[in-house]
Write a structure and sequence with these properties.
There is one protein chain. By secondary structure, the protein is of the alpha/beta class. About 35% of the residues lie in helices and about 20% in strands. It contains 21 helices and 24 strands.
């Protein structure tokens, strides 16, 4: 592997510069080379277990103490045709001895399990990178299936790379002879052989993976031991073969993290834990009414495991039933959640409008994916922002909260719950497929660090009529928050109507009065406008004239690009929005400070449209809708052009 020394500023970038060879030392007969970062991509057929392989390598890397970021990438089909380009599944992992922000622009190591995996990923691999190829799969028929007329392993087309031909399948079958498995059964463990080889190359711990395999196949101990044997065989192959003369070490990121207890976590898992924590902090039962949809289903799966925390999950027959049940649970006094993606939001839109009218707390979790319609179910996008903002009939304002990293999904869920409970409103939580499936280290918070989300239910009459009678008015509002009282059904004396027809201010009686409707529409908007959100902070150490403004999952690539530019001496400011409705109160003043505002988004300019409309600022969009996150180098180039335009 080629090494290149970079400056300290570039090393602190956290982006995807060439690897840094810090030092070399022999270990027995083989050299060990120290690096500051590595980007590995496992790629194979969707039946080759690449997601499991990447996940296990990630878990061991996290336990070792490296900072890391991952990018799983897999087909939408349950089982795409074997050996074809549409069937390729990959998992990219970037790990380092310092703070990093993205899964990496390009892999330094590609593990290609078949010709399709090689062809689908080769364009992303830089010259001089290592390519580990499973030569057993490069038969004429398999190569012809993806358009190879001659073998790329023999025709010189890979001369620019360090190619390591390894008969992974043959070696795996040979290692498992003693287990009495059929050849087909033995071949299934070739991903564990590859994992063992990579674990040797990068000095990853092995105990956790062996323990995991024995637990995963606890009911089939022979299969468990076969996978462990394949994993060990891969490790031993690296140790003994002459083709791998060098192994690599990436030291723990000892200075990247504040003190605390850490674990690796995906965005959907962090969001699930945030919802559970919010229920505990609010002292309310947590209710999820949901219908399975990629990439949100993991939240339903995870929450269903935590009944011991007062969590109740309901897998409904469709999207509408899911939100209807959740809204009923909110009426009954639960912290209610419904999870979905863009197509499900479209189906839920009338019920979200009903939640606006009822003024009940409800979390609508939208894990965005490529659209329109069914679109790209397993790819990422940020194109539901305007749908969340305006996608309902009538004037139906809903707050919007967007996490910026996988770990930040925990805090964003807590924040969304705070808003919903305090202001009695549905709240959109906009994550996306990149955050949902990606992972990074997360510091587990202490319970005394979590906010107090407890609420006071209505307990008795809250209004006195002219004749002195005390009554309960369901739409009599808190003067600070404009929230209406939350009355749990069955509380004596607090009987009241709910429904989608317009309510009379105060009494909650059905009203068709034009003046009342005008008032209720405006007060519901005023309630959302008055939500307290933190002031927006700007990272601007050099008094820049160009601001890059982002939201959601663009945080990592934008920040990596900004670090690169500053290392080159380019002045640029950065701000990132978590709250999009309402915007932070100081956003207009911040935008006015800069000559140029650039807004990168994985859509065709939705935040830029909102910024232009509200603040009359010539925000310049930079857009990408290819189902993949931005690359840091790509954004750095665009931002540099904006600075000098």
């Amino acid at each position: 592997m080629t090494s290149q020394v970079s400056s300290p500023a570039e090393q602190a970038d956290g982006a995807e510069e060439p690897l840094v060879g810090e030092q070399r030392r022999p270990a027995g007969d083989k050299e060990v080379r120290r690096l500051d970062r590595v980007i590995i991509r496992f790629a194979g057929d969707s039946g080759d277990g690449m997601q499991l392989t990447g996940d296990r390598f990630t878990s061991e890397t996290a336990s070792f103490g490296n900072d890391l970021s991952t990018l799983p990438n897999f087909p939408a089909e349950i089982r795409a045709p074997a050996g074809t380009l549409p069937g390729v599944s990959s998992f990219q992992l970037h790990f380092a001895d310092h703070d990093i922000l993205t899964p990496g622009d390009a892999p330094n190591v590609l593990v290609a399990m078949n010709p399709a995996a090689l062809k689908a990923n080769l364009a992303d691999v830089p010259r001089g990178a290592d390519i580990i190829v499973n030569t057993d799969e490069f038969a004429k028929r398999a190569m012809a299936k993806v358009g190879y007329d001659t073998s790329p392993l023999e025709d010189g087309s890979l001369a620019a790379y360090n190619v390591h031909p390894v008969p992974l399948t043959t070696l795996t079958v040979e290692a498992l002879k003693e287990f009495g498995l059929s050849r087909k059964e033995a071949e299934r463990s070739k991903n564990m052989f590859a994992l063992g080889l990579l674990s040797w190359m990068y000095h990853r711990p092995t105990e956790g993976t062996e323990k995991f395999l024995r637990a995963k196949f606890a009911k089939k101990p022979a299969i468990a031991e076969a996978n462990v044997a394949a994993f060990r065989a891969g490790w031993n192959f690296g140790e003994t073969t002459e083709d791998f003369a060098v192994s690599y070490e990436v030291a723990p990121a000892t200075t990247a993290f504040p003190a605390g207890t850490y674990r690796n976590i995906s965005g959907n898992l962090a969001l699930s834990y945030g919802l559970i924590a919010a229920g505990q902090q609010a002292d309310l039962p947590l209710y999820l009414g949901s219908y399975p949809i990629t990439p949100a289903s993991d939240i339903l799966h995870e929450l269903s495991r935590h009944k011991n925390f007062g969590v109740r999950t309901f897998q409904a027959e469709d999207e509408i039933a899911g939100i209807g049940a959740a809204l009923g649970a909110a009426f009954g006094g639960s912290l209610a959640v419904t999870t979905t993606s863009g197509p499900g939001v479209a189906l839920k839109s009338e019920a979200i409008g009903l939640a606006v009218s009822l003024e009940l707390p409800l979390l609508v979790v939208d894990i965005q994916r490529g659209g329109p319609s069914t679109g790209l179910p397993t790819k990422t996008e940020q194109a539901d922002l305007l749908q969340a903002m305006y996608g309902r009939n009538g004037e139906a304002p809903v707050p919007i909260v967007a996490p910026k990293t996988p770990a930040d999904c925990f805090d964003a869920a807590m924040d969304a719950a705070r808003i919903a409970l305090t202001y009695r409103t549905p709240v959109f939580l906009l994550s996306d497929g990149y955050l949902a499936n990606g992972s990074e280290p997360w510091r587990i918070p202490e319970t005394d660090e979590l906010p107090d989300l407890r609420v006071q239910f209505a307990a008795g009459p809250n209004h006195t009529l002219a004749d002195g009678t005390e009554v309960f008015w369901p739409y009599k509002r808190d003067p600070q928050t404009l929230a209406r009282p939350w009355a749990v059904p069955g509380t004596p004396g607090l009987e009241h109507r709910i429904g989608g027809i317009e309510k009379q201010d105060g009494t909650g009686n059905i009203s068709y009065d034009p003046a009342n409707h005008d008032f209720m529409v405006r007060v519901r908007q005023a309630k959302i406008d008055g939500i307290e959100v933190p002031a927006l902070t700007v990272d601007d150490p050099d008094g820049a004239r160009t601001l890059v403004l982002g939201w959601g999952s663009t945080y990592g690539p934008i920040t990596a690009a900004v670090r690169r530019l500053r290392a080159q001496g380019e002045p640029i400011a950065q701000a990132h929005l978590r709250h999009i409705n309402p915007f932070p109160k100081n956003l207009g003043e911040i935008l006015a400070r800069y000559d140029k505002v650039v807004v990168p988004e994985m859509n065709l300019g939705q935040l830029a449209t909102l910024i232009r409309a509200k603040y009359l600022v010539d925000a310049q969009p930079y857009n990408q809708v290819n189902g993949m996150p931005f690359k840091a180098e790509q954004l750095a180039t665009v931002l540099k052009e904006a600075i000098h335009a």
